[in-house]
Amino acid sequence: MSNLPFDPLLFSIATPLAVAFVIALGLPKRWSVRLAYVGFTAPALLALWTWCNYGAAPQQQGYAFLRTYSTGLDQLGIRLTLGLNGISLPLFVLAGLVGLAAGLYAIQSGAERLKIYLMLLLVMLAGLMGVFASVDIFYFYFFHELALIPSFIMVGVWGTRGPSENSYAAMKMTIYLTLGAMLSLLGLIALYVKSGASGAHSFNLITLREIIAAQPLEVTLQQNIFALLLFGFGILVSLWPLHTWAPLGYGAAPSSAAMLHAGVLKKFGLYGLVQIALPLLPAGIAHWGWLLGLLAVVGNVLVVGLITMAQRDLKQVVGYSSVMHMGYAFLGVATCSTLGVGGVVLLMVAHGLSVALLFLLATSIHQRTHTFDLQEMGGLAQKTPVLAGFFVAGTFASVGLPGFANFWGELAIFVAAWRFSPLFTVLAVAGVVISAIYGLRAAARVFFGPSTDALAKVTAVHPPTDLGWSERLPALILLGALFFVGFWPQSISRPLNATLAAVYAPANPAAK
Amino acid sequence: MDVTALQAIAANNDWMTIFPELLLGCVALALLVLEIVLPKRLHASLPGVALFGVLAILPSQVMSFWVGYIDGDSFNGLLHHSYEGQVMRVFFLLTAALVCLLGTITVARRKVAQTEFYHTVLIVTAAMMLLAQSNHFVMLFVALETVTVGFYILVSYFRGSARSLEAGLKYVIMGALSSAILLFGIVLLYGVAGNPSLPAHTTAAMNFDELAAFLSANPHHFLASVGIVLVLAGVAFKIGAFPFQIWVPDVYQGAPTPVTAFLAVGSKAAGFVVLLTLARTFAAYVWLTLPVLTVMAAATLLFGNLAALTQHNVKRLIGLSGVSHAGFLLLGVVSAATVPLGYGAVYFYLFAYLLASFAVFGVMAHVGGPDDADQELTHYAGLAKERPFLALVLAVGLGSLAGIPPLAGFMGKLFIFIATFRAGHYGLLAVAVIGVVISIYYYFGWIRAAFFADWNPAPAAPARPPVDLATRVVLGLLAAGTVALGFYQGPLGGWLSGR
């Protein structure tokens, strides 16, 4: 394929924004929906195009598709610099695919005030594409926050719980996320100011890497900045015990918002740790690695895993399970080895796809049973076999069955973690059993076994129909991607290895 | 009378340097004349005349960026024309135009004298513009008093409303007290600097340059430091900084909404321009001003945010949130002592604050009922359904005030944070972060009131009249400007970051 006549990264950010703007100007509903298809599809197609062409594209300083735009702050070292390396490429594609699935699902959902709903989703999507395409860490942060107001409004207005509960969840989520974002912003500013002590201030990651490779920061400074980034990002990724906003928020969020938030936006913090904090602050992770590993394994995997087992609400199960799986990712970060970090990136992609799929299906189940309570469900598989098939496949993926992408991520993390700490590895592997128990039990409760009386009453009034094509298509996109990566992980790992070897080698000579 | 001196004044072109202020004064006087001359049915067009006058002066003011008198003094050093001063002149003209526009919504609803409102606004604006360029304590005090006396009238403009009158009285007492403190400080400084036994003593100590030279020759004089603290305290009253913020909630609530906006944006900005000028003048006493301003900034941030948390009346809420913004701006002033970026950060923050505040006040003017002192959060229930445009503008304005990207307010906070970090005030940064997190609760609580379904039945809100086209355009421009300035800072960003 030849080169595009425009910058694919800029367009993948600008298209959803432009569509949202046009809808905001007061486009009629019919045209808004048609235009929204463009807004959701274009980023996904552009992302896939970059994926196919990444190998062939010319590389500049480890980045492909590198472009810089000035916004008037050049003297502060802030420029909109877009580009992709092996770490950001898979996540950029993830954002595009989950965005497409969430958009398609939202269009068919027939939500109240659909135009505003789609508009907010488009703004959120634009932010997500921008996060992973930004080489400038200021814009990396900027685009993340762009998604904050939409998710607040979406949870509050289109939430799936009662008004007071939605409002509480939206508020709690926003305050937690702002706290996390402010801490990480301070960390980023610290990195910017301290690395530029010689006068060459820059937020550009490439420049920062060069400066710090030439003259590493002193050890205590590294540790302090890393602490800001770790706990700031940690709140955003729901590191135990700062995770309580996540199940609550996801439980109340409408399906498309939950898909984008849990699937993609939450990966922002991990991505920040992997792309920025670990390579630039090796002494920081050396100092905080043990605490991170401990919180991840004991807190996220075991404690939250056990809490998940006790949940009766389907959406809460999915929400808590996503918190739990972040524990594996944190463990991979704690190892700070090329293998472990590679596993984290793979797991981020896999988890993003599978959790989005599960949130989508949970809403589809709710539409048929009119409840999220697992005790009131049962025997749905006879009436909706396709839905059951998707849900069981999604559960298998989330548990980490071979053949799905999640397997490779977890495997790589466990192998890397064994060298870090065998005890943590054993405990983390025990977590897999926990996640198998609650995952399979949820699937069994919903789809198999006898139907309850409460459910019979509901289904007598509204006979459940199987998954239609409008719901099937987004689910297929996500499931297909899970299989594709599961059977061909090299599609992600090959560019990833090249980048990790280059980025981690100078900063961390001990890593393999 | 010295005729030759008068001839000299007439012959030089000093008057040219203040022609925007002179023109504003002419427009203000013309309004009063027109009210007498014109038949009654044409009186409705007078606000339009005021607005048109301000908008006509704006481009000529913008052109003054390229004329020769920048970086020079005029009127024997009473005024100093810096680039920043020109930027702030534009700022105050924009403020005046927007206040006049809000006046056509709120003041027109009441049975009070109409024309005098616009007249006073224009005079106050001219005084603010002079204030931004003053280089002499006499000029500073006269301009500041013109502003303050104008505000005494404006705050209690709704004579029929008990709250407005109460607010006016409070503002008079507090304002007089602060003027007295400021004057006392000025006199102390003047007296000390004139002491012939001290090195570098001067008889022209009212002039900032002379005073700065004297202070740097006597960097630890006790009486001078008392004078400096008193002057700073007087200015702190104007910007509503802790511990002189006590008048803010009552006055903001009682004043008519356009006046509240004028106080929040214009008066505060004027205070900060004066503060920046004075901080430069008192540079030799940085050992004193820095700790005082640091403590003031931290306390202002915490007080503003904590006090705003519990407010249900939106005018009190915006007033107290304004106190917290004064805290953020003080961070910029503190860091400007060592990091030049601090100056630029303050100016950018003020512009972002102007756009966002007037967006919010514009919505408030529409939602407020006949008694606009009595505006509760519950009055905003269902705004998103009934008037989606107003709700959107409100969300953008509040988001910018809260400092959420991609809005301009975030960039302002970012510059302030970077400047503060470079200056090494880590404790202040921690307080600022806590402040931002607390402020999310009340700003988003307001957005929640406008957008979310209400679960407890609210008392009936006043009827919301449809928004006319001109206001719609202006509010749309303010919201769009807030978003655009967040994405693209352009020449403004280049100017402030290149310092």
How would you describe the overall organization of this protein?
The complex is a heterodimer of chains A (512) and B (499). Chain A is built from 21 helices and 3 strands. With 512 residues, chain A is mainly alpha-helical. Chain A has one domain. In chain A, a hairpin with a 2-residue loop joins strand 1 and strand 2. The longest helix of chain A has 33 residues, at 163-195. Chain A is globular, with a radius of gyration of 22 Å. Mean pLDDT of chain A is 83; it is low at 507-512. Chain B is mostly helical. Chain B has helices spanning 3-11, 14-17, 19-37, 46-63, 83-106, 115-131, 137-155, 162-193, 208-217, 222-239, 248-254, 257-281, 286-309, 314-336, 341-367, 383-386, 388-402, 408-423, 426-451, 469-487, 490-497, and strands at residues 72-74, 79-81. The longest helix of chain B has 32 residues, at 162-193. Chain B has a domain at 298-499. The model of chain B has no long low-confidence stretch (mean pLDDT 86). Chain B has a two-stranded antiparallel ribbon.
Shape of chain B: globular
CA radius of gyration of chain A is 22 Å
Mean pLDDT across all residues of chain A, rounded?
Answer: 83
Identify the quaternary structure here.
heterodimer
Strand order of the largest sheet of chain A: 1-2-3
- Taken together, the total number of domains of chain A comes to 1
Question: What is the succession of H and E elements of chain B?
Answer: HHHHEEHHHHHHHHHHHHHHHHH
Q: Beta fraction of the residues of chain B? A: under 5%
Helix/strand-derived category of chain A reads: mainly alpha
Helix percent band of chain A: over 70%
Unreliable stretches of chain A:
507-512
Work out the largest interface and the residue count of each chain.
Answer: A-B, 39 and 40 residues
What fraction strand of chain A?
under 5%
Radius of gyration of chain B: 22 Å
Largest sheet composition of chain B: 2 strands, antiparallel
Number of helices of chain B: 21
Q: How many beta-strand segments of chain A?
A: 3
Strand order of the largest sheet of chain B: 1-2
Distance between the termini of chain B: 46 Å
Please summarize the sheet with the most strands of chain A: 3 strands, antiparallel
Shape of chain A: globular
